[in-house]
C-alpha cells in the first residue's frame, strides 16, 4: 500500500490530538485516502520533554531536519504565534508539502500570501481548524455556499469568553473567579489575554473576511473589545444576555468588522448558545440565515478539523499520491 509521509509541527494539545487520531483511526484513513499515513517527524521546542510517540519518529527542534526528509507529503502545523511558523510553512510549501494548520494568528496575518504561494507550488492548505476548531465553518462557506452571497456574519468565536459570560450570569459570580474555574477546567490558557481581550476572535473573523470577501478590513478600523471590561453588575442584571460577538459585513466597498460584548435578546440566534460552544450565523442570499454550532476548541475537535482537511486534500490528489 502507498504511504503518505506526515510531519507534525507542534505536539501540544492539538498536535497530540492529531497524532492520536492518526494512530487510532489508521484503518479508516487507509480506506478514505487509499494510503497508509505515517507520522515520520515531530517539531517541538523543548527537546528534554518526554514525548509519547513511536521510537522511529524523528523528534527535533530543528525544522531543517524535517525539511531534509525525502518525499514528505504533508505538514500538520499546530505551533503558537505567527513567527517563526510563517517562515517554516513558506519553506515547506517550496519543498512541495501540503499544509494543514490550526494556527489562527499566523493564518490571519499570512494566510493570503501562503495560499498564493501554495497555488504556485501546486500544493494545498487546509485551515478549517483556524476558525471554531471542529465546527465546519470554512468548508461550509467554500463548498456549500458557492452560489450564495454571504451578507452579514455574526459569530461567537471564543469558547472561553462565552463560558465566562454564561457562568457569571447564571451563577452571579465575579469575572476573576469564573476565569479561575475556566483555567482549572482547561477552557482557558494560563495567560488568558488573547481570549478575554477578544484577540483570538479578532484573528478568526479576519480569516473569515479573507475567505468571504477576498480581503480584510484595515486592522486598526476594527472595533475590538474583550469581555474583561464589562461590569459584573450589567452581566447579572441586564435584560437579555451578554454575548461576545464578532461581526462582519461588506457595506458598499467597505468591510466593517467589530469584535465586542453586546446584549442580545431571546430573538437573537446566538442568545441560546451557552458555555464553551462556538457558533457562526451566516446570512446568505439564497439559503437564508444558517447557523453552525459546536465545540470551538479542544484537542479532539481541532484534530477532527485537521484530519478532515487531510482527507479532503488527499482524496482530491489521490491519483497524484498513488502514482
Ligand atoms: N488548543 C485548542 O483548542 C486550539 C483550537 C484551535 C486552534 N488552536 C491553535 O493551535 C495551535 C496550538 O495550540 P495548542 O493548544 O496545541 O498549543 P500548545 O499546547 O501550547 O502546544 C504548542 C506546541 O507547539 C510547540 N512549539 C511552540 N512554539 C514552537 C516553535 N517556535 N518551534 C517549534 N515548536 C514550537 C510546543 O513545543 P513544546 O512541546 O516543546 O513546548 C508545543 O508542542 C495554536 O496556534 C492555537 O491557536 C488551538
TrEMBL record:
Residues 136-311 form the Homoserine dehydrogenase catalytic domain. Keywords: Amino-acid biosynthesis, Methionine biosynthesis, NADP, Oxidoreductase, Sodium, Threonine biosynthesis. GO terms for biological process: methionine biosynthetic process; threonine biosynthetic process. This is Homoserine dehydrogenase. It comes from Lederbergia galactosidilytica. It holds the Pfam family Homoserine_dh. The keyword rRNA processing does not apply. NADP(+) binds at residues 10-15. InterPro entries: Asp/hSer_DH_NAD-bd, HDH_cat, HDH_CS, HDH_short, NAD(P)-bd_dom_sf. The active site is at residue 204. Belongs to the homoserine dehydrogenase family. NADPH binds at residue 104. It comes from the Bacteria. Residues 10-128 form the Aspartate/homoserine dehydrogenase NAD-binding domain. GO terms for molecular function: homoserine dehydrogenase activity; NADP binding. Its EC number is 1.1.1.3. Pathway: Amino-acid biosynthesis; L-threonine biosynthesis; L-threonine from L-aspartate: step 3/5; Amino-acid biosynthesis; L-methionine biosynthesis via de novo pathway; L-homoserine from L-aspartate: step 3/3. L-homoserine binds at residue 189. It catalyses: L-homoserine + NADP(+) = L-aspartate 4-semialdehyde + NADPH + H(+).
Amino acid at each position: 500500500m502507498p504511504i503518505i509521509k506526515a510531519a507534525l509541527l507542534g505536539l501540544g494539545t492539538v498536535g497530540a490530538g492529531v497524532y492520536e487520531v492518526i494512530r487510532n483511526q489508521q484503518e479508516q484513513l487507509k480506506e478514505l485516502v487509499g494510503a497508509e499515513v505515517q507520522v515520520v517527524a515531530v517539531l517541538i521546542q523543548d527537546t528534554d520533554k518526554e514525548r509519547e510517540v513511536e521510537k522511529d519518529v524523528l523528534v527535533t527542534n530543528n525544522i531543517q531536519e524535517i525539511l531534509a526528509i525525502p518525499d514528505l507529503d504533508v505538514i500538520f502545523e499546530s505551533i503558537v504565534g505567527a513567527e517563526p511558523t510563517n517562515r517554516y510553512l513558506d519553506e515547506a510549501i517550496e519543498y512541495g508539502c501540503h499544509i494543514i494548520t490550526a494556527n489562527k494568528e499566523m493564518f490571519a496575518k499570512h494566510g493570503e500570501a501562503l495560499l498564493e504561494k501554495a497555488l504556485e507550488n501546486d500544493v494545498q492548505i487546509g485551515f478549517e481548524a483556524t476558525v471554531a476548531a471542529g465546527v465546519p465553518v470554512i468548508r461550509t462557506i467554500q463548498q456549500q455556499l458557492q452560489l450564495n452571497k454571504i451578507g452579514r456574519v455574526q459569530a461567537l468565536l471564543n469558547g472561553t469568553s462565552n463560558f465566562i459570560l454564561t457562568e457569571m450570569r447564571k451563577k452571579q459570580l465575579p469575572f476573576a473567579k469564573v476565569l479561575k474555574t475556566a483555567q482549572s477546567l482547561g477552557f482557558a490558557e494560563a495567560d488568558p489575554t488573547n481570549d478575554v481581550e477578544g484577540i483570538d476572535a479578532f484573528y478568526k473573523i479576519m480569516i473569515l473576511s479573507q475567505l468571504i470577501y477576498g480581503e480584510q478590513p484595515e486592522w486598526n478600523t476594527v472595533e475590538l473589545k474583550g469581555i474583561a471590561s464589562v461590569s459584573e453588575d450589567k452581566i447579572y442584571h441586564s435584560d437579555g444576555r451578554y454575548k461576545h460577538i464578532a461581526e462582519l459585513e461588506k457595506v458598499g466597498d467597505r468591510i466593517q468588522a467589530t469584535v465586542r460584548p453586546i446584549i442580545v435578546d431571546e430573538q437573537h440566534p446566538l442568545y441560546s448558545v451557552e458555555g464553551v460552544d462556538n457558533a457562526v450565523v451566516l446570512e446568505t442570499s439564497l439559503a437564508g440565515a444558517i447557523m453552525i454550532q459546536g465545540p470551538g476548541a479542544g484537542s479532539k475537535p481541532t484534530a477532527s478539523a485537521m484530519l478532515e482537511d487531510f482527507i479532503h486534500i488527499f482524496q482530491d490528489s489521490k491519483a497524484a499520491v498513488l502514482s
